[in-house]
């Protein structure tokens, strides 16, 4: 009975993770409540994952990554290195992937990707190259670079913590570096050859044309007898027509209205709406439509410009609508359209809920873009020039990071204490504020990992792990022996990473794999490490956070990731299956 309950909960969790109808952390906590309530796991087992040292390691890495980002040292480094490589596109791509992979071996790959997007988009504009030629290689390099060390991804740390609780030796800081470097190099060679040829190239277009604004924007003249005269722009009767005000042309001056701007007679209002709404405007007393479509020059003048901005990983705008976030008041920018996963959203802009990686087409005064350029919540995808104000603090963070790695490698300090010390030192030395350090931690991920660790205990206690392991061994052993069974688990992990996070997928599969390894008389650590690496090389779809971040800025389509990522994933799975038995004999 307990086996059926646990497996049913697993299926429900996978479905909910895939649909995102309920947030992943809430799903995780609900599962813990049910499992503990049914006495399948004890309260101690339910919450043991949250008090583990690997949670401290992951949180510390988030803080150190944010501290490096705060100092601007990585922006400075990547632009310098890319400039050196501009003599050849191939050399530039190699440099980008190499630098990204090396940095990602010691930092969260999502953070690394986020930090490098803005410089690379700016670079692509400067050298007249499509950003799509750079951003997918960037994301893949960050993901694969994380396989080179224990701290390269949260998945590695979580798996190491789980197998330690299972009585096995935890994974060493550089134990996986040999196979990780091979995986990274194979991925880099693939992207430099086959992948590069398959990367899309998008021709440069005017932003208004690219977002197809001409079909939705028109000029409306306010006649002297219009009841709109004297009304505030953003609370006027126009709002009842579902029209969105963009800007005002008054006495040949084109300007952006604010909440204090009142409509005057003979104003020309640039408004956005669908065809049906614009037909209603024609029938409204005191208004006259000048044009059915707006030429792009009306949206950009010397005092008003268009640009694209991206919602960053740590933004507090995520999961809030444009209206709820008071976007115009906070940033002084008008949102014209939202690009998400290859789709452009233009209707009911105020009610659009913002997600990480969304790219917004915005309009505003040039000085406004300068003011928000260093915001932690949005990134301006434009020409990029690093402002390097915190060189000393950057060196302090790098030194703290390096000392933590050295102390852990020489076993002078436990890994968790070493990285916690480095994170605390960064805060004490004011490389990052306490508030920003807290905001840098991905609490959802920590809840997910802590909860899925407890779910692993439920798999063991209920007998579900043994039941599944026995079934998989019976089916797969006659087909391919130990390697065949290992291949089955790795492929299962790759499949599960599509609806679930990498860490969650690995933590679901590992209890079953450890049981299967024991039944076969194989090395359980070898199985665990193969599954861990399999979770990190799953590049079939763009659901990995690093891929989500580059999706819209690179103007990619879903199919681009499938046709480029699927062959690479299969190639890397083969590398894992060949090399894991070499590094960890089974």
Set out the fold topology.
Layout: H1 2-19, H2 24-37, H3 43-48, H4 53-71, H5 73-84, H6 89-104, H7 109-126, H8 132-145, H9 154-165, H10 177-198, H11 207-210, E1 217-222, E2 244-250, E3 253-255, E4 268-272, H12 275-282, E5 287-291, E6 305-311, H13 327-331, E7 334-340, E8 343-345, E9 359-364, H14 366-372, E10 378-381, H15 391-409, H16 415-428, H17 434-440, H18 443-462, H19 464-496, H20 502-520, H21 524-536, H22 545-551, H23 558-583
Antiparallel strand pairs: 1-4, 1-5, 2-3, 2-4, 6-9, 6-10, 7-8, 7-9
Task: Give a description of the structure.
- Keywords: Membrane, Repeat, Transmembrane, Transmembrane helix, Transport.
- One of its GO terms (molecular function) is monoatomic cation transmembrane transporter activity.
- One of its GO terms (biological process) is potassium ion transport.
- The chain crosses the membrane at residues 54-79, 91-117, 138-159, 171-192, 394-410, 445-465, 485-514, 526-552, 564-584.
- One of its GO terms (cellular component) is plasma membrane.
- This protein has 586 residues and is α+β, with helices and mostly antiparallel strands.
- Among the domains are: 216-273, Alpha-Beta Plaits (2-Layer Sandwich), CATH 3.30.70; 305-364, Regulator of K+ conductance, C-terminal domain (Alpha-Beta Plaits).
- The protein is 57% helix and 9% strand.
- It has 23 helices and 10 strands.
- It has helices at residues 2-19, 24-37, 43-48, 53-71, 73-84, 89-104, 109-126, 132-145, 154-165, 177-198, 207-210, 275-282, 327-331, 366-372, 391-409, 415-428, 434-440, 443-462, 464-496, 502-520, 524-536, 545-551, 558-583; strands at residues 217-222, 244-250, 253-255, 268-272, 287-291, 305-311, 334-340, 343-345, 359-364, 378-381.
- The strands form 2 sheets. It has a 5-stranded antiparallel beta sheet with strand order 3-2-4-1-5, covered by helices on one side.
- Helix 2 (24-37) packs parallel to helix 18.
- The longest helix is centred in the last third of the chain and has 33 residues, at 464-496.
- The protein is globular, with a radius of gyration of 26 Å.
- The two termini are 34 Å apart.
- The model is unreliable at 292-296 (pLDDT under 50).
């Amino acid at each position: 009975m307990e086996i059926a309950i646990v497996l049913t909960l697993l299926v429900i969790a996978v479905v909910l993770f895939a649909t995102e109808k309920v947030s992943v952390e809430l799903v995780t906590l609900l599962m813990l409540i049910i499992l503990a309530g049914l006495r399948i796991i004890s309260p101690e087992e339910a919450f043991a994952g949250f008090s583990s040292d690997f949670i401290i390691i992951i949180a510390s890495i988030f803080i150190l990554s944010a501290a490096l980002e705060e100092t601007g040292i990585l922006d400075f480094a990547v632009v310098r290195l890319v400039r050196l490589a501009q003599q050849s596109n191939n050399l530039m791509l190699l440099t980008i992937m190499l630098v990204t992979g090396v940095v990602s071996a010691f930092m969260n790959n999502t953070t690394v990707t986020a930090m490098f997007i803005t410089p690379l988009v700016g670079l692509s504009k400067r050298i007249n190259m499509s950003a799509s030629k750079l951003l997918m290689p960037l994301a893949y390099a960050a993901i694969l670079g994380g396989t080179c060390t224990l701290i390269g991804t949260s998945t590695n740390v979580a798996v190491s913590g789980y197998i330690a609780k299972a009585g096995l030796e935890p994974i060493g800081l550089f134990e996986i570096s040999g196979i990780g470097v091979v995986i990274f190099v194979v991925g880099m060679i693939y992207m430099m050859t086959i992948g590069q040829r398959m990367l899309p190239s998008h021709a440069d277009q005017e932003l208004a044309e690219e977002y197809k604004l001409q079909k939705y924007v028109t000029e409306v003249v306010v006649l002297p007898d219009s009841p709109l005269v004297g009304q505030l722009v953003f609370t006027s009767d126009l709002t009842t027509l579902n029209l969105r005000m963009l800007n005002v042309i008054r006495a040949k001056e084109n300007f952006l209205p604010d909440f204090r701007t009142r409509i005057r007679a003979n104003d020309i209002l640039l408004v956005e709406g669908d065809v049906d709404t614009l037909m209603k405007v024609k029938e409204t007393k005191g208004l006259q439509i000048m044009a059915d479509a707006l030429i792009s020059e009306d949206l950009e003048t010397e005092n008003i410009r268009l640009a694209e901005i991206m919602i960053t990983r740590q933004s507090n705008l995520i999961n809030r609508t444009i209206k709820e976030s008071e976007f115009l008041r906070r940033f002084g920018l008008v949102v014209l359209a939202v690009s998400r996963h290859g789709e452009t959203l233009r209707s009911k802009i105020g009610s659009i809920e913002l997600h990480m990686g969304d790219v917004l087409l915005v309009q505003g005064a040039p000085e406004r873009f300068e003011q928000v350029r260093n915001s932690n919540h949005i990134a301006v995808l434009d020409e990029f020039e690093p402002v390097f104000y915190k060189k000393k603090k950057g060196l302090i963070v790098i030194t703290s990071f390096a000392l933590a790695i050295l102390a852990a490698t020489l076993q002078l300090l436990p890994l968790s204490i070493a990285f916690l010390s480095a994170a605390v030192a960064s805060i004490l030395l004011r490389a990052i504020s306490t508030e920003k350090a807290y905001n840098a931690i991905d609490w959802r991920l920590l809840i997910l990992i802590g909860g899925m660790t407890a779910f692993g205990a439920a798999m063991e206690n209920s007998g579900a792990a043994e039941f599944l392991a026995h079934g998989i061994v019976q089916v797969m052993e006659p087909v391919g022996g130990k390697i065949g069974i290992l291949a089955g688990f790795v492929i299962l992990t790759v499949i599960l990473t599509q609806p679930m996070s990498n860490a969650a997928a690995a933590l679901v599969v590992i209890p079953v794999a450890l049981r299967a390894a024991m039944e076969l008389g194989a090395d359980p650590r070898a199985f665990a490490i193969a599954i861990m690496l399999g979770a990190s090389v799953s590049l079939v779809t763009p659901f990995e956070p690093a891929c989500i971040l580059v999706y819209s800025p690179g103007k990619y389509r879903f199919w681009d990731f499938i046709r480029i990522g699927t062959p690479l994933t299969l190639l890397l799975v083969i590398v894992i299956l060949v090399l894991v038995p070499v590094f960890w004999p089974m």
